[in-house]
Each structure stands twice: as structure tokens, then as C-alpha cells.
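Help! Submission page says 'invalid entity' but I think these are all valid:
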Amino acid sequence: MATLIKKIKGGEFVIKATDAADIAIPEERTEEQKMMADMGRDFLNTEVIPILDRIDKQEEGLMQSLLDKAGELGLLGISIPEKYNGFGKDFNTSLLITEVVGAGYSFAVALAAHTGIGTLPILYFGNDAQKDKYLPKLATGELKASYCLTEPGSGSDALAAKTKATLSTDGTHYIITGQKMWITNAGFADVFIVFAQVDGDKFTGFIVEKGDGLTLGNEEHKMGIKGSSTRQVFLNDCKVPVENVLGQIGKGHLIAFNILNIGRIKLAAAALGGCKRTSMLSIQYAKERIQFKQPIANFGAIQHKLAEQAIQIFTCESAMYRAGADIQAAEEEYVAAGKSYEEALLAAAQDFAIECAILKVAGSEVLDYVVDEGVQILGGYGFSADYPMDRAYRDSRINRIFEGTNEINRMLTMDMFFKKAMKGELDIMGPAMAVQKELMAIPDFGADEDELFVAEKKALANMKKALLMGAGAAAQKFADKLATEQEVLMNLADIAILIYMSESVLLRAEKLISQRGEAACSLFVDIAKVYLNDAMDKVNVAGKNAINSFATGDEQKVMLMGLKRFTKIAPLNTRDARRRIAAKLIEAGTYPF
Amino acid sequence: MKILVCISHVPDTTSKISFTDNNTKFNNAGVQYIIGPYDEYALSKAIDLREAGGGSVTVINVGEADTEPTIRKALAIGADDAIRVNAFPKDANFVAEQIAAVAKSNTYDLILMGRESIDFNGGMVHGMVAELLGLPSISPIMKLEINGTTATMSKEIEGGKEVVECNFPFVAGCQEPIAEWKIPNMRGIMSAKSKPLAVLEPVASEEVVKLLNFETPKPKGACKMIDPATPEQLFDLLRNEAKII
């Protein structure tokens, strides 16, 4: 995907419209990117998918050998610069590979933990000596990594970690003592990124190698991702050389949180990989399963499910690669301004932290929707552990929990949005005032809306107004207490997510039309319109819930009327649109977009 | 050892096959193209041989510019360089003449390809190339071992196995399990762009086959269920409706 010329700032989608020409779409992949994606797919299909049961039984050494094979192909070094044995590929390429491999169930989790939260802290925060020592071996898989942040008493509240690091009297080592929990890849990792408090309250990152003082708990019994090694890590007077302090003392939160921004968008990428595989399995089953003397794919209820899976996937994919390219463009700008590759990507991901949080929520919830309907389409066979939906369903669930729960990410979305506004990075005052004014004015009855997407764009602009109205009123009402109004923040975050998704799918369809012509893109138009149609109702519900929880009297009346106006959308025959989408899925026998 | 591997650019095995222009042209809308699977076995074997004994692997494809992604995939898998003969591969004879023309001006010890392509499944090109070059042709080979300048190959024949010994140079059509398909790695993919890909114009070739039109097989009819209590109904249908007994 080409670098974008015009740059939008993170979070700005709420107050600005974007031109279709300014977003990146998956259809613009280069030949090399396609070849890399094929490579990842071939690897999964030949090495991973045939042995999923063995992986889930955690056969001794199996996951390590798969990671070694992935390392031989280069799948572990995509984001690592060439000077450290990696391939220095751009951000959207790394998202693409994450997506493809994301269809690999537990293997995908092990790979993502190794290449993401395991390797990236060293890449982004390590000094030259640490990078020289660890990155080349992490890129090939010779060393395997894990990330130890969570503790029995601190999950979402990560900075409350109790693990202690004390400098030895001779000043050469830190002595780390504490307990880490839910550590992915712990069973076979050689390198552990550990967070601990120095001098009681200086939250700090360390690179800890397997060895004396580091022991492991038993494998956890989990609902899903059973093949992924998840254990407790115990640190008992574990001696770590001072040269293994990662970043600065007391600045561990920068590592923990910045890595999570990238981790969140990558989680959406991996979820999409799982979604596409599940969609394919759903379509194939629906075509084969005969009931009432015909394939169940002939029935409207099943077609609805197949189409909705595809609509959700296509939409989330549009948003994910759009954000990925925006991050990449910002990164390139930082590099041009003199920052190193590592600093630039971190800064860019920080700029787009709102989008990353949105995508984490959207990606994990789309996957949960897709696997849930996958089970339903397979009926009794969906519930059988001998059929593939069972694993997809169980493995999906963790995604709403790790990398920051979806609740934390929803609150973060709005928290960051308000902070950006306070800092003046996001000018919401002007647009919010305009919305206030509009509430008092005579409604616009709409003029010529027959042209493609004119009505939809207006609807999208109205969605943004609904958010600005709700967010503005909530901010005024609660002022500095807004952070504790979690229900309202959730409602507002839901609207923000729906806006980003709706806009992304609309812009992708529009860009595709500009490249291929309208006739070739009728299904993309269907997808965008159905998504927007349903999103409008969801915005309405979330908006009402928010408004009714704090507004009363005339203010409530005016806001509810405004919301009604802002969530108005022309009637759409979604049944027919979904049938057309389903027909294409059934004809292709797989997710074809 | 210099090895030439001939690769075809064919629709993916899951492609939906349809035709346009009054059933005279293949409809390639939405079709993904791949290296012919049998050709890919030949390519994998060639790379194994080079890795074991040194030498070079050149891939050749007769095709228009749209086949270059397929050729670069072969380079990513591990071929050293590539030749594209810039012409639509209209039939087996035409393709064979183009390959033979290239092989005449470069001496290859081995010319490998798949036993057949998976579009027209003609299985003729290896024989024709060998004939044009005056070389032996062996197909379909499932095992190939090299000792100096002699190859020992085995293939399955009716009721048994045939083992053939042949000196260089020769032409062979390959099939599994001659080698395992190779997944290109990142380094291979990234270097594919910079490996040489020569584009040659085709040599003149006499048209010996004329393609009139394509036909797709008749769609399968609905299945008729017969009550086990009335087997005579089956005979009646086979005799009078299907007219096969």
C-alpha cells in the first residue's frame, strides 16, 4: 500500500471528514505483500492447521518447533530492522502478516506474543547492546520471548504491580522478587520482559533470561487457546544484571503502554485472520449441509448470518488497514523529521492510540460475533468438539480480555479523546458549538441525495454530531468527575467506534468505485450501506442511554430530539442487500473480498 | 549442472471455470493464477539438486506480461533467474517450440517440467520439447537421483514400477513425490524482485492446432431417489431416461 500524502491526525476522524482518496485499502497491496501473505497462508495450511489437536494438547516441543519453522521462513522478523537479521517491513505489511497468521488459533497467539509484546519492548526501548544481543536471535526464533506484566493482584491496573527489584550492594545486579500471572509462552520462553518496582514505586522494565531465580507454575487450564503456553512466572531473588534494565528506571509505564498501542491494532489484525477462516468454514458447511432436501445456504436465515459475518469482517478490515496506513504515514513523517525508525513508530502509534483502542474492541467483538454465528450455522456440529467451530469459539473469547479489556479500551478511547481536546490537539470546540447551534435551528430536510453516498455521508456527519453533542454535554455535566462515569463513557465509546467503522467502510467502497467503476462494486456498496444503516440504530440506543443518564428537563428533550435528527437514515432493504452479499459468498465458497 | 524448469501460469485449482466471446476465450475475471502444481514439483526438485550439487536453476514461462507475478514466485522459491517468452501460450506445440528455441541457444543438462499443466492437462510439452531438441524424454517421474552426469529415475507403470537410467541432457515430466513443495521465505520473496528476468520475443511457429471453442461439462442433474421396494423403477430409468442400458 502506498504512502499517503494527506495526513489526518489521530482521533481527528470525529471532527473531520476524510476523502476516500486519502485512505489506504487492502486492495492496493503490492505484489510482494501478496506473496508474503501467500507464504504465511501456505505455512499455516501445511504446518499448523493439520495438527491443531496436537497443538492444543501442548505436545512437548511442538510449539517451539513451529515457531522455529516460522523463524526459518522469516515470519518472526517482519518488523525487525535488517541490521538485526530481520526484514524491516513497513507497518501495514506487518499487519497483513499478523492477519494471515491470525487464522492459526493457539499458534497465532504464541507467534503474536513472541513477535509483539515479547520482542517489541527490546526493539523500541532497548539500547544498542541489548538490541545487538537479543534481536537477531528473536528474529530467527533461536530465542523465544514472553512478556510479564500482569500479576495476581494487578491486571487492568497494571502499574499497581508488587514485584520488586532491588539493586545489589555492589551495584551490578537487580534482585527481582515477585509473581507474574497469565504469561503467554512462559513454558518455553528464553527471554522474559518483566516489569517490577524499583525502590518501591519506580515501575521499570527488565530483560530477564531463563535461569536461577526464575521458576514456572503449571500450565493453566483455560477455556480456549489451549495450545498456547500460559503459566505463572515466579521470581525469587532473581539476579538480573544492571545492563538488562530496559529503558529508564521508573519509565516502565512508557514501555508497557506504548507496546500496547501497537499490540491492540495487531490484535484486530489477528482477529480478522480468525474471522476470515471462520467465515470460510461457515460458508462451506452451509453449502454442504442438506436439510429439507436442500443446502441450508439456500435459506434466508442462514444467508443473513453469512452476509453479516462478511459485512462485519469487511468493515473492520477497512478500518484496520486505514489506521495502519495512517500510523505508517505518521511514522514516515517522524523519520523524515529525524527520529529513528523505532522512535517514529512508537510516536506514530501513540498519535493514533484512539484508533488502536477502537480497533482492539472492534476486532475482538467482530471475531466473537463471527464465531458465535459460525457455531450457530453448524448447529449441533457447531457444538461438537470434533468440528472446527468449537475451537474457533473458545479461542475467540480471550481477545476481549487481553491487551487491555474491552471495557478499559472503551474508557481509554474517550479518555484520550477528552485529553486531546483539553490539550488543544483536537479542536472539538468549533464543531461542538456548531452542533449546539444546529440543535436550535430548523432541521435540514435534505435536498438532492440520489447521488451515490451523498445521503450516507450526511448520515455519517450526523453520527459525528451525535457524539459531539453527547460528549460535550457529558464533559460539561461531570467535568473532572467524567472519568468515573463509566457507563456514559462506554456509551460514547460505542458511538466513536461505530463512527470509525462506518466511515472506513464507506470510504473503502468509494475508493474502490473510483478505481473499478460502480458496476463492479455493487456489493461493496451493499456492505457499506447495510453497515451504516444498522450502525445508526446502535448510535441511537447508545446516545439515548448516555443522555438519559445525566440530562433532565428541557436539556434532555432538546438532546433527544437532536439525537433523533442525527440518527435519521433513509430506509434500506437490508434483506435484499444481505441476500446479494450472501449469493456472492456462496458462489465463491469462501470469504471472497 | 544447469537446469531449465518450465513453468505454466494456470488458474488456481479452486477457480470457477467459465468462458467469454462465444465460448472462445477463458474468462479470467476474478481468477487467481498459480505456478502449475506439477511444475512446482519440478522446480522444487531442481532447487534440491542445485543445493546438493551446485549449478543453476533457470525458469522459463511462455506468457504475456501478466504472468510475471507467477514467474517471480518461482524466483522467490529459489530459481536463480528467469526467462519469459513474450507470447500467449496458444497450444502445446507453440509452447514447446519456444522452449526448444531457448534451450538450443543455452545448453542445459536437465530440462524439467510438470507431467502436465492443470489448465489444458495436455501432458505433451515435455515430449515435444525433447523431440525438437533430439533428446530423450521421460515422464511422469516420481523419483530422480543424479550420479555424475547420469540420472536414475523411477515412475509407476501399470502393475509395477519402472526404473530408467539416462545420461544428461534429457527432458523429464515430474510429479509428486519427486520433491516437497517449498514455501518461499521472506528473504526469497524480497530478493525475487532483483533476480534477472529476461523477456524474449517468440520465434515463428506454424499453427498446427486451431481452437474452435470451449464447452463446460453439463451440470449435474438432481439426484432421483428410488424406493427400494420398486427396483424395477431403476431399470426403467436407466433404460428409458438415461438410455445407458
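Support: the input was valid. A stray whitespace character was the problem, and the output above is from the cleaned input. The mean pLDDT of chain A is 94.
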